[in-house]
Specification:
The protein is α+β, with helices and mostly antiparallel strands. It contains six helices and six strands. Strand 2 (63-70) and strand 3 (73-83) form a beta hairpin.
């Protein structure tokens, strides 16, 4: 069940003229990618797949890239793989929240995917993780306000090349602290 605060934000954004649409061109995909890349550089501080990955996702129609627009300008978006028309996954989501506070671009991006899943008759929407249960995680709070059920099926990892894995892990840790 959608929390009242989220309902209010969605209604307000729509009233202020925010629109949602699927990416219609590679230029749209690159506009979305630019916002996502900025988020990863400034806040996430972890590596992001190259733009070509997102373009390939779009070209191969593996799912949907939904965009949040204000007066035609892309202010947010979400990349959602779709599995066998049964589950929509929230994979990458972003919004220019600090510049468009009253338009809630990140909220609208997530809402766009949930709404798409519902209107398309897809049975499930998967937020793709809520962090480790014993650690504070702001993303979990954000996702919880959309309602739904939080489930934990455990975490599994198999490392094929421990040296490369540990070097990569160290590199990401260093990037996060820069």
């Amino acid at each position: 069940m959608l929390k009242e605060n989220r309902k209010r934000q969605i209604k307000k954004a729509i009233k202020e003229g925010v629109s949602i649409e699927g990416a219609r061109s590679e230029e749209d995909v690159l506009g979305f990618y630019a916002i996502l890349q900025d988020l990863y550089v400034k806040k996430v501080k972890k590596p992001l797949f190259p733009a070509e990955f997102f373009l390939s996702f779009y070209r191969n129609q593996v799912g949907k890239i939904l965009l949040v627009r204000d007066c035609g300008k892309i202010i947010g978006g979400i990349l959602c793989p779709i599995l066998d028309n049964r589950t929509v996954y929230e994979w990458f989501v972003c919004g220019e929240d600090s510049e468009y506070r009253t338009k809630y671009p990140s909220v609208m991006a997530t809402w766009a995917a949930i709404d798409f899943a519902t209107k398309s008759g897809v049975g499930y929407f998967d937020f793709m993780g809520a962090g480790k249960p014993d650690k504070e995680y702001g993303v979990r709070e954000f996702k919880a306000k959309f309602g739904g059920e939080l489930v934990e099926f455990g975490r599994n990892i198999h490392v094929c090349k421990p040296l490369f894995y540990n070097v990569g892990k160290l590199a990401v840790k260093i990037m996060t602290h820069l």
